[in-house]
């Protein structure tokens, strides 16, 4: 088989193996007459990839995780690698891919096909880099994604208990409004494995039809690769209208007011007419924050005299 195609396939699914459970610290390889399918699952994410290469003999083989990682990190510059199935001893088998020998585990792998949602009527098409950038900028235990016809938004409460919002670009969305909670790092890694563009399919029963994975799993799909990700069974974060830039402006205002309050700088505070004014410094440089409840617009002029 093409060594690079096989290594790339294993690279894309192996990050989603479980770290310790023997049956899940592995990749399921299913060989058919015209293709080979690879599946890895860590308990709340499941990655599945198909290549149009027949890797050895037909059948299902559970490949041990360490051997999979070893092979996936190699490069073959387009050359072919031999695939040899053989007995390791009287009770175990192994497969040799080029120079790497991988034990074949004798364990029951979950029936992943039973986890695939059957009713998917909410579909979003996105560019992954925009969502990945937003997820990287957030330090929070969980994030809530609002899917709607008006657009998608990311809500969160950070480690300092500050609530925030990031608007997420979406190329197309069809379906009902949905609110789904994810772990940000889990969702980021899942999107990173999908390539430049991905279709997100939210099941009809998500968050409304009980806690079973079959009802809640969200599908990420692109070309010959798809992934299931189980949302977190936690409360959706508070929905606020402050974006990241506006939150930084509020933080600046709090710091400036603190300096005036403690007498570190001279200043004057005026509130009225729907506006908040802060005058700071010996020469009284004016800064203005306009309030349109509950949103704050960017300051027209911000200068702090040292």
UniProtKB/TrEMBL annotation:
Protein localization? Cytoplasm
Alphabetized, the UniProt keywords read: Cytoplasm, DNA replication, DNA-binding, DNA-directed DNA polymerase, Nucleotidyltransferase, Transferase
Q: Which GO terms describe its molecular function?
A: DNA binding; DNA-directed DNA polymerase activity
Recorded hits in Gene3D superfamilies, A to Z, give: 3.70.10.10, DNA Polymerase III, subunit A, domain 2
Biological process annotations from GO: DNA strand elongation involved in DNA replication
GO cellular component terms, A-Z: cytoplasm; DNA polymerase III complex
Xref: PANTHER family: BETA SLIDING CLAMP, DNA POLYMERASE III SUBUNIT BETA
Its family remark reads: Belongs to the beta sliding clamp family.
Return the protein name.
DNA polymerase III beta sliding clamp central domain-containing protein
